[in-house]
What we know:
Blueprint: E1 2-5, E2 8-11, E3 24-28, E4 34-38, H1 75-86, E5 93-94, E6 98-101, E7 110-113, E8 122-127, E9 132-133, H2 134-140, H3 142-150, H4 152-155, H5 159-180, H6 195-211, H7 220-226, H8 228-235, H9 240-261, H10 264-267, H11 273-286, E10 288-290, E11 293-296, E12 304-305, E13 311-316, E14 321-326, E15 335-338, H12 345-352, E16 365-368, H13 375-381, E17 391-394, H14 400-411, H15 416-432, H16 438-450, H17 472-497, H18 511-525, E18 530-533, E19 544-547
Parallel strand pairs: 12-15
Antiparallel strand pairs: 1-2, 3-4, 5-8, 6-7, 7-15, 8-14, 9-11, 10-11, 13-14, 16-17, 18-19
Helix pairs in contact: 1-6, 2-3, 3-5, 5-6, 5-11, 7-8, 7-9, 8-9, 9-11, 14-15, 15-17, 17-18
Amino acid sequence: LRLAAGRGSVVVTVPDDLLPGDPLAVIVHGDGTTTVARADDDEDTVRGGVDQRDGMSTPSKSRHCITMTRMSADPEKIHEQMIAAVSPAPGVFVSPKVKRGSVPPVNIIGMVACDEIAEDEELIRIPSSLFLSIRRCRELYPELCAAVDKIAPSMKGRETEALHAACLAKSLRAAELSSTSAEDGLDPPSSKAEEADRTTWRVWDAYAKSLLCLSFDDHPYWCAMNDPGEAKAMLAPSSEHEYMDMMAGDVVAMYQCIKKHVPEHLLGPRLDLGIFLQARLCILTRVFQLDGDSCMVPVNDCFNHSADPGLTWSWDDDRKDMVLSAARPHKAGEELLISYGKRSNVLLFRTYGFTLPPEVEPDWTFMVQASARPKDLFARFLPQRHEKLSIHLGTQLVQQSLVVALNACKDYGRDPEEFLRAVCVRCRAPYDADPGLALALEALARARRREPSSCDWWAHLAAPGVALEGGRHVDALRVKMSEYLCLTAHLEILDVMAGQLSEEQCLEGSRPVRKVLLEGFQILRQGARLALNTYDTTLPSVRGLLPN
């Protein structure tokens, strides 16, 4: 690297583990020689820190110059090529009634019916031999997978995730190179490869090209890497921006570990942080959990999400196929939608980068994590081993982390109800003081004056001269209101336990978790501990609590 020095310049050697965008420190030694090292802001950087949650990285304090790859070809043509590669494979069925397209008013590319579809009609069937799954990666990338397995101690239990990302990143880069040069892309490494594997390679190549047409410009991980200041300003007082930053650092840490320990010839040419980030985001946003494996499924992952989906997907255990079928009739021109799960806007945003209109949001969530975790309250109510516990609060399910916290609090000789109340009051206070939430909170108050159990803040928000900014700002508002409603719901449950509020005055959306927690607090008052009951078929949408 040639650096300007006065009227001249000096040439220095840059350490090979630095990435574009890393800050440099030029060190001039006493003998006149010059070396270059990375200039860390402090010790809490992605290169040095270890997060207690998952054993990988802490949030990155440095900025990285990252370029993600986009196919220059027509995405419609690339999709057609993928369908053409998948359809002839043994066991595949792709209905001619399904095509790529978008429907107003959202106009997001997904899958649309091009003919009438009957209820229960099978639309797509993809055999597991074509999945870009961990199992198939081990079969088709054996040397790369073996190399990643060898660094398992460095991955702290994340080796299968790293393996999946490394294999997909290699596939993405090979597909990109084959589209811009005379290279053959994803061909079997041996001419003796079985025909079934040759078919899989051809499908993977076409599938990887379709994945390279995706844009992740609005995904939280990318936003945290590209402009962490903007992400924080948009989401504060929510701690979700810290989660975004931590996970962005996690991507960098995993990439650096793989690049350092896995031979380059196994990773393939030009495997950089940008393509690795794309692989991680593709897996995060498109993976299915099937037959005990993490699976990327061509075609089946092209459908958008709805809280009220028209399609259902299932696992055919006899044939080892993933099947998409219509849950109801569809007319030609109607968008075909699946469910990504009954997730709150908090969890949808952190995973996929989008939110739902609040009137169809199926759950509210607050994560007691990072700076949202009141350290003094945790130290006062919980034993030291739980001082860094992250607690997941939701209004549809009681999560194990909350059960752990309440039991630990009781075992420590403290009052679990007092603990939860103190945490929720402390966590909600910044939202009440946030100027960016003032209009929404006033609208919520108007809705509840009319009907105490109502949460319809959005219906009372519109007023003359009041307008919401679009895009990410609407997503941020929905995330923060989901968190606020979740904290309010839990405070109301505690008020019911204290005899200060009737259940009829509580938020209607908290009914599932309210029923379970009221029973749970009674169990704790009787001196017993709590255990999740996941087997009661009379409670299909909640998890009950039983004495332990």
